Amino acid sequence: MAKLEAGTIVQLSEAREVPFGYFLTDGEEDVLLHHTEVPEDFDPLQEQTVFLYQDHEGRLAATLTIPDIRKGSFGWAEVVEVKENLGVFIHIGLKKDVLVSKDDLPELSRLWPAKGDKLYCTLKTDKKNRLFGELGTEEDIRKLAKPAERKIFNKSIKGTVYRLLLEGSNIISEEGYIGFIHRSERVREPRLGEMVEGRVIGVKDDGSVNISLLPRAHEAIDEDADRIYSYLVGRGGNMPYWDKSHPEDIKDRFQMSKGSFKRAMGKLMKEGKVIQKDGWTHLVNKEKQ
User: Fold this and answer.
1) Helix or strand or coil: residue 121?
2) From the CB of residue 171, how many other CB atoms can be counted at a distance below 10 Å?
3) What gap in Å lies between CA 210 and CA 198, rounded to an integer?
4) pLDDT at residue number 78
5) Collapsing DSSP states into helix, strand and coil, what is residue 160?
6) Is the model's pTM score more than 0.85?
7) In whole angstroms, what is the distance from residue 38 CA to residue 83 CA?
8) Same-domain check for residues 129 and 190
């Protein structure tokens, strides 16, 4: 008979009752079904279908809760805790969360999943029969995928980052589309497991899509204008920057190109919020701000 193994579903019978629960057996090995896992309608005389895992003391234990994520079965799991020296813990529906080892995560910890992010996982065990989460591969993810239609071009799309590459990031959208975000189409590199929202900038023949996380032109102008306006307010309504300022100075102060700065300033001037004079920009009616 095969050895009982964490991460699997088995049928066990009662061996004996103890003060802290029931020991169940396959005839060769016994595992504990703790009293916290025993429902009111539990019938010890019936064979039980249980899921095996390690309890907090590292002992093989049983639960009547059968998670969707188990050995050979994948699902999305939420990250509930991040431990820098260990990895991230995911919740699969059990009272004990499961570790995804740091060895299976990006080398840079800033790209690790954060609490609330989601990972597509299965389970695996090591040589000591300890249970770990295992990330789905590209092949596993593509089993979920469906082709995108051309009509979604330029539409907004949300998806979860499942793979980090030198040239960009792969996501799978809420609809099941496989998407790629080139590094030139983002302000920062998203985390593994992060939900991102962007727009479709290309639909390829295989049904996958290219995505940009950069704002649309009018959104970028609004954001840049808000940044400049807030800076002006913080300085009492005056700043030594205007359309003819050096690009390097604008980049250092506002983290935007001179072209973006000029477009945002044009918006603020058109709205009558600012004026420029002698190398300075001033809020209009600043005493009312």
Assistant:
1) strand
2) 27
3) 10
4) 98
5) strand
6) no
7) 31
8) no
State the helix-helix crossing angle for 258-270 and 217-234, rounded to 10 degrees: 80
Strands (DSSP E) along 214-283, which ranges? 238-239, 274-277, 280-283
77 Cβ partners below 8 Å, 6+ apart?
Answer: 69, 90, 91, 92, 98, 118, 119, 120, 121, 133
Structure tokens, 16: 């004996």
Is the Cβ–Cβ distance between 169 and 211 less than 8 Å? no
Let me know the angle formed at the C-alpha of 46 by 39 and 59, rounded to the nearest 5 degrees.
60
Same domain, 221 and 280: yes
- Domain residues for the domain of 103 are 75-136
Closest CA to 169 of 243, 111, 122: 111
Q: What is the DSSP letter of 106?
A: -
Given 116, 136, 156, which residue is the final one in a domain?
Answer: 136
Distance CA(241)–CA(281), nearest Å, equals: 6
Geometric angle at alpha carbon 230, from 285 and 238, rounded to 5° = 50
User: Could you tell me the CATH number of the domain that includes residue 172?
Assistant: 2.40.50.140
Tens digits of residue pLDDT in 264-288: 899 899 989 999 998 999 998 744 4
Whether the Cβ atoms of residue 160 and residue 144 lie closer than 8 Å to each other: no
For tokens 């260990």, name the residue: 86
- As a whole number of angstroms, the distance between CA 64 and CA 74 comes to 19
Residue 4 lies in a domain: no
